[in-house]
Description:
It is a single chain. Helix content is about 35%, strand content about 20%. It folds into two domains: about 35-170 and about 290-395, Alpha-Beta Barrel (nicotinate phosphoribosyltransferase); about 175-290, Aldolase class I (TIM Barrel, Alpha-Beta Barrel). Helix 3 packs antiparallel against helix 5 (about 105-125). It starts with 8 loop residues before the first helix and ends with a strand. The chain is α/β, with parallel strands linked by helices. It has helices at about 10-15, 20-30, 60-65, 95-100, 105-125, 145-155, 165-170, 180-185, 190-200, 215-225, 245-255, 275, 285-290, 360-375, 375-380; strands at about 35-45, 55, 75, 80-85, 90-95, 130-135, 160, 205-210, 235, 260-265, 280-285, 295-305, 305-310, 320-325, 325-330, 340, 345-350, 350-355, 390. It is built from 15 helices and 19 strands.
Amino acid sequence: MKEFLVASASEILSGSVTDAYFERTEEILSKAGKNPEVVMELHVKQFPSPDYGFGVLAGTYEVMKLLEGLPVTVEAMEEGSLFFPGEPVMNIRGPYLSFGKLETAIIGFVAFMSGVATKAARCRVAAWDKKMLSFGTRRMHPAVAPAIEYSAYIGGMDGVSNTAGARRLGIPAAGTMPHALVLALGGDPATAFEYYDKYLDPSVPRIMLVDTTGAPFNETMEAARILGPKLEGIRLDTKDLAYILSSIRWELDRMGLKNVAFWISGGIDEYEIPIYAPMVEGFGVGTKIANAPVFDFALKIVEVDGEPKAKFSNTPGHKNVWRTESHDVVSLWDSQVNEGRKILEPVLDQGVPIKEQKSPQEVRSFVLSQLEELPLGVKNIKSPSKWEVIYSARP
């Protein structure tokens, strides 16, 4: 049997994908007969870019799968929660040796998936009323395609192109047609359009890719001639040709095909979406989401055997976060803050799940509702104002 360079589920669950120094730490503590009860805090040390005003938390469900059955208790923000610099998103409490070497996997799940979800959310903010599809899994290792598509979807994408990812989400895979179809048929777009319509089920949207030959106007006219009123849309995978869309729109309208929607893909992200949004119905966003910058998460000890202890650059103590309409307050876990609501809640009690996981559709709705409520300045892509995070150690 062929083996790819991927870690198996059993290797991840056993901690075999850890970093060497965690194995050394485990060896030392075991030989010394030490196994302290610790609280470890997952927080972001640094956002990917100064213009990131918020993050979207993803990967907590994967962490729960990893820790289920272990003698640990976990408190976390809800999957899909918005988070801000400097605040904890998860606490893990238990004997260090029971989960210490899983640190690498825990950070990896959340850092990677939150990066993808946040990039998708930023694209959603930039193109609020436009449709968007995730097209980028071909740019990443195929083993993580379902994680990419899940994260992109909950972050705000309307659909995903990867078939395995779509199956995990319980939605149909989305997409149009590739240049490969045109080229495999001799480089003739007209034949490709004809066969696409002839051989695919009517439920598949008739959206034709019209830039294979570099002449999108001519290819669109061919698509209109062949499909007529069945033509639902056209897609340009070369954004530099978007200047021609006004001419295409004029001619399609003149032909009575006013309902044909325009789509653009090819290197699009939240910075370019506003440029093209007035011209199009939707976007295919690929590499920029699948290869999104990860968040610099750290999982650090903040309490040992009931005593607050931490690295000098971290604040010691078991904490919670209280959210108001304008800011967050980080407090000690047992403190009572007279504003907002606590957003870290118990999700795992001694290895037993105590909170039901939501469907991807429910998580996505939760993300979108938070984005709608977020102050405009904070979600401004170019130059966000900062959501204030206040630290208060008052009892």
